[in-house]
Design goal:
Blueprint lengths: L1 H22 L4 H25 L9 H6 L7 E2 L13 H10 L4 E7 L13 H15 L2 E9 L11 H6 L2 E5 L8 H14 L5 H17 L4 E2 L10 H11 L2 E5 L7 H9 L4 E4 L12 H9 L12 E3 L13 E3 L1
Helix pairs in contact: 1-2, 4-5, 8-9
The structure holds zinc ion (2 copies).
The site of one zinc ion has 4 residues, from loops.
Length: about 325
């Protein structure tokens, strides 16, 4: 009953917003107030859903969320450096993150199998050392990650067990130009390259199977730029993301969700994360497009892992598949 009411309420909000947007732009504070008003109902909704799913209720902190009146991005968990396709070194990304008042940062260069930009496995320890130094200099928490690639239709991803011991977080996304077997080139990479964002039914099903299998096989923290040149059945992905406690990225450069898909993700109670995907240090922590998406599609703030709170990644959780958060 409550779920139904909330959905109607959301629909009314979207309609009202459409009318209002014709005449004026929202200010930053207006957006957050609007989000917080929605929160009361949505938090009830979340609690009911979480009860149903036996999720730890300590993760939900209504009070903190309701007291906040501004949207504060706390961390950027998808940034590149000279170790793959980025322009700056680790300390440069860290300095800009500090300048943007972030509390946390992740260095997530392209996965090892990327034919053009893949980070070298043997460089991981060097990167880790530089992260330690940058943490000391900036006082930020900096995670070591990679943006790994899907490499096969069987949901393989280009990290191994040894890599996972070294890495703090694991991002996975679809990229072309990845080392793969001929069969996967024919079934996955080439058709998606040809049909890009307009895959036919069979290809969309295969893409979805690939991502679902990867989510079962690997402790994926964040799925990056979903749907980009690899269209998916977002309903199935949303269910698996909630079940596995995987964050869904709203990438500031590549946002390929429809309004309907965003609604599906919200209804399934997934947690989103806003990332810059910065390839230049000066872009770290800058996510204007992602914030616009939050406003446009009325994404509840409680469902965003890095606004007014900090995400907890799988390696650091009590229960790996349950979303956890640190309230600020
Ligand atoms: Zn990417
Ligand atoms: Zn990236």
């Amino acid at each position: 009953m409550i779920i139904k009411d909330t959905n109607n309420n959301d629909k009314q909000k979207i309609l009202t917003n459409k009318k209002r947007k014709k005449n004026n732009q929202y200010s930053f504070d207006e957006i957050s107030l609007k989000q917080n008003n929605l929160k009361v109902k949505n938090d009830e909704n979340l609690i009911n859903k979480e009860r149903k799913n036996n999720i730890n209720l300590n993760q939900v902190n209504n009070k903190n969320c309701l007291d906040n009146s501004r949207l504060i991005i706390t961390g950027d968990y998808h940034t590149h450096t000279i170790y793959s396709h980025g322009k700056g070194d680790i300390i440069d990304n860290a300095n800009f993150a500090k300048e943007k008042n972030l509390k946390q940062l992740a260095i997530t260069d392209h996965g090892f199998s990327h034919l053009l930009y893949g980070v070298k496995r043997e460089k991981l320890s060097e990167i880790k050392e530089k992260i330690k130094l940058a943490e000391k200099q900036t006082n930020l928490k900096i995670y070591l990650g990679v943006e790994a690639n899907f490499t096969s239709c069987q949901g393989d991803v280009d990290v191994n067990l040894e890599d996972l011991k070294i890495l703090d977080i694991l991002l996975v996304g679809h990229h072309r130009m990845v080392k793969s077997r001929l069969i996967d080139k024919l079934k996955l990479f080439i058709p998606n390259m040809i049909f890009k964002n307009k895959a036919y039914k069979k290809l969309k099903e295969r893409n979805t199977e690939t991502v679902l299998k990867a989510m079962e096989k690997y402790p994926i923290d964040i799925l990056t730029h979903l749907n980009y040149e690899m269209p998916l059945d977002i309903n199935q992905i949303a269910k698996k993301a909630f079940e596995t406690g995987t964050y869904i990225e709203i990438n500031d450069k590549k946002m390929y969700f429809t309004e309907e898909e965003i609604k599906t993700l919200i209804e399934n109670n997934v947690m989103f994360i806003l990332d810059s995907d910065a390839h230049k240090p000066e872009h770290v922590g800058i996510v204007p497009n992602s914030l616009q998406v939050v406003e446009k599609f009325n994404i509840p703030i409680k469902n965003i892992a890095n606004i007014n709170k900090l995400p907890v990644f799988k390696k650091f959780r009590k229960i790996k598949n349950n979303y956890e958060q640190i309230d600020l």
